[in-house]
Amino acid sequence: MINNTLPYKTKQFFFVLIKLSIVVGAFYFIYNKLANNDNLQLSTFIDFLSKKNVFATKNIILLLFLSIFNWFFEILKWKILVSPIKKISFKNALEQSLGALTASLLTPNRVGEYGAKAIYYSTNMRKRVVLINLLSNLLQMAITVILGVLGFYFLISTYPVNLDYYKLARVSIIGLMVLFLVGFGIKKSKITIKGFSLEKVKRFVTEFPRIKILQGLLFSFVRYAVFSFQFYFLLLLFGSSIAYLDAMIIITSMYLLASIIPSIFIFDVVIKGSIALYLFQFVNINELTVLSIITTMWLLNFVIPSMFGSFYVLNFNFPKNED
């Protein structure tokens, strides 16, 4: 928060400077990622898209429609989940979702999104907004994990995936023991999260309206169905003849593995690319196709929305009851 002892014009100057820095930083890293990608040169990527006729009007319209549909349900989910503490319009939810996307673009695992959404609300609501945003992400993660585990099961049942089951079991047992010990330690201590005790966090989640959680889960599933189909459509567009169910085995496994690897969000495309290259080799899809699809998905679902989000970042003002 800008120091209240500073003159008003000085505070306004620093406030504008911070907003500009966020937008310029986001655009610079997007440009840098596209222009200096060791795995996929920008010129090669554009030539490949042209050869596959991706720039045809009907293809662009369908791809953009799927991206809009994807974000429509994300925005609607936020509007529904935040409604128990404050009713907001779809336009407000749009501004908060896309603005937070832009502001969080450079932060590890999009952690900046929590603070970015919270500052749209008055001080007394911000802790609850952070928890609601956590709940929203957990609902999306739940869908990713459930479908990903199913996909991964069929993956190892269908394809010759080399897994060291002894090592996997050992790591799983150690992980469960660590989680148990950490959970036991937290339960016996009086740890707080941003002023919330864990008991209050637990009570907040358990008392949250069940109908809102179910709606959020439904919207998360629809989002997943949309962007996974978009990935499949790009496979077909780039010349693959893979069946839908076979593709979904790979796609769901890819999103599962990518979601559990911590990363700076701007490099999410690199992580998904590396995992996808390994998984799609089982169905004989070449590297250029896979990397091009991953990059296209990133552009459609994150880069373009973040550009619109930059408008909301630049026009952001604190709630009226804030100084």
Description:
It contains twelve helices and two strands; from the N terminus they run αααααααββααααα. It is mostly helical and 323 residues long. It has one domain (8-161, 210-314). α3 packs across α6 (126-158) and α10 packs across α11 (268-280). The chain is globular.
Distance between the termini: 10 Å
**Average pLDDT, to the nearest integer?**
82
Helical segment count: 12
Biggest β-sheet: count, sense, barrel? 2 strands, antiparallel
Order of strands across the widest beta sheet?
A: 1-2
Shape: globular
Structural class: mainly alpha
Strand % is under 5%
What is Rg?
Answer: 21 Å
Give the beta-strand count: 2
Share of helix among residues? over 70%
Whole-number count of domains: 1
Transmembrane segments: 12-31, 55-73, 130-156, 168-186, 289-314
Protein name: Lysylphosphatidylglycerol synthase domain-containing protein
Keywords: Membrane, Transmembrane, Transmembrane helix
Element layout with pairings:
Blueprint: H1 8-35, H2 42-51, H3 57-82, H4 90-104, H5 112-118, H6 126-158, H7 165-188, E1 192-193, E2 196-197, H8 198-207, H9 210-237, H10 244-259, H11 268-280, H12 287-314
Antiparallel strand pairs: 1-2
Helix pairs in contact: 1-12, 3-4, 3-6, 3-9, 4-5, 4-12, 5-6, 6-9, 6-10, 9-12, 10-11, 11-12
